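FW: tagging you since you asked about this chain on Friday. Here's the raw sequence from the shared folder, copied in full. Didn't touch anything.
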Amino acid sequence: MPITRGIVAIGLAIVCALSLMGLPHPQKNYLAERCRAGLLAASQWLFSQAIRYAKNEQKSRFLLTQNVKLALDNMRLREAAWENERLREALAFRRTDGATAVIPAEVIGRDPDQIYDTIVINAGSDRGIVKDMPVVTAEGLVGHVAMVGVSDSVVQLLMRSRVSALVQSTRAQGIISWVDGHRFRLRFVEASNLVRAGDRVVSSGLGGRYPKGIPIGTVVEVNQVKRDLVFQQVFIESSVDFPNLEEVFVLVVSAN
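HL: got it, structure written out here
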């Protein structure tokens, strides 16, 4: 079948050629002019389509570039808005009792395995940082300085610390220890003390490391265990976003 079609096509071409050869000279010129005009029109159309395609491609590339730029600008604006919000909270942060100065610092590293629960900040002895200084955010207590370098320091987070604390409303005292996530337990709270969900828990100032009055968290659960008639179970939740800390404040505590 393909061979037959080829033979037919060749035969038609020969017939057309012989027919054209038999035409008078004026008609040959007319057909040549028409073919030349058709080829010229086709080439012009193809050229215009190529130019139009190139312009559309250039326009699409330009619009795509503009969209990417706008997206980047939006991301920068959102980040700037979040940063401004954090700075407003930092400016609203009131100096804790016993702190004579507040040193702002940025988090530049953290424990990837969360085994030691530490972060690294970009402030060291060059900015007056010394070991055991308390570290806070506007939301509450973060931890304390564990190691000091020349231009950076390692901060031990609250999860690996024991903090003497008290319930702000009733003055019930206990020791803070980590449970999981943002959840801590206020241990050794006497069963006779009235503690309710929503009560604020702050540092008591005992022990000397943390000044009195630093926010630690809010009571979220209180249980009275029947087999333990001396102490009650008090659980609190910290407002500090430990996994996503970006800025912290190191408190310079007065000696007295």
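FW: The chain has a mean pLDDT of 77.
HL: agreed, and The two ends are 108 Å apart (CA to CA).
FW: great, closing this out.
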